[in-house]
Each structure stands twice: as C-alpha cells, then as structure tokens.
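User:
Care to share a sequence and structure tokens?

Assistant:
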Amino acid sequence: MATVTDLKRQKKNESRINVYLDGEFFVSADEVALYRAGIKKDSEIDAQDLMDLLRADDSQRAFDFALKYLSYRLRSKKEIFDYLLGKGFDDETIDGVMGKLEHYGYVNDEAFAKMFFASQKGRYGVKKIKYNMRQFGLDDRIIDDVCGGDDMESLKKIADKYRNSHKTCDNKKLATYLLGKGFEWDSVKSVINDEFYN
C-alpha cells in the first residue's frame, strides 16, 4: 500500500492532476479519472487501485482526444481508431472509447457516408467516391446503400464545365478527364457520343 501525499493541479493543463505517492511524483492523471477512482489526499492506495487509475486515465484521455478530433468534422470509425492508435493507446482502450462514442451518437458510419457522398457528388463519379469511402474503412453494404442511383446528371454537368473552360477541348481529352474523375467508361462514352457534344 502507498499513501497519496499530494495532488497538484498542473499550471499548463488544469484538468490534469499530478499525483504524489509517499512524497514522490507517481503519475499525471485526468481530474475526472481521479474522482471516479476515489483518489484523495492522504488516502491509501494499492497496486490494483493504481492500475485502475491508469486505465481510467487512459480511457478519459483517449475519449478527450477523440472528441477534439471529431470537433473538426464527422469521422468514420476507422479514422478515429487509427488516430487513437497513432496517439499510443492500446486496442482495448480504443474499443472502450469507440463504444462510448457510438453510445452518445458521436460516431456513425452511415451518417458519415451520407455526408461524404453529398460532398463529393457533382465533383466525382460514383466509382471514385466508392473507392475513397473504402479508404475511410466504410463497409461495402453502407457504401452501396448510400451510392445507389445514376450519376449521369453529375457527369453531364462536369463535362459541360470542362468543355466551357477548355476552348480547344477534344473528345479524347474530355474522356480522359472524366475517367480520371471516376466515371465509368460506358457513361463517359455515351456522353461524348451524345449529339449535344458533337
């Protein structure tokens, strides 16, 4: 058993508390984690309590990192998992945080997929959008549900815009550009062969 001889709030990060055991600095921990673990000045603490404290602190820190990461934009589960892994958290801690984030509705791959598709439609073909969605670790079922439908309208708009901004554009250049945007060859061919473009 060890005695908690002091708890000092950090100056640079007031939510972090320096914990001293038997007069020696032991660890810096999150204020919430300390409270949940029942750690107070002059309390006795054993090895299991210390382990519980460290686990709770890791979990709280990982959760805080995840919330900050999510504050910029919606994220996929894989993005958050990889981000926390890169911060040095173990799989068990990350799994716990992911469960908490899902419980509170902060993480939802279907909502992320819909948002991502809406932001990309009209700029890229469905083929490229699906490829990019897979890079975010989204399930094929979710991708197929979100990306259903025809993208001919987007294809025609992008083709029109390209032709209007390139006075010397020929069909070969246009086809190469549209294929690079992730449209299927059959769709590109039908737009280029359409009498409107001849």
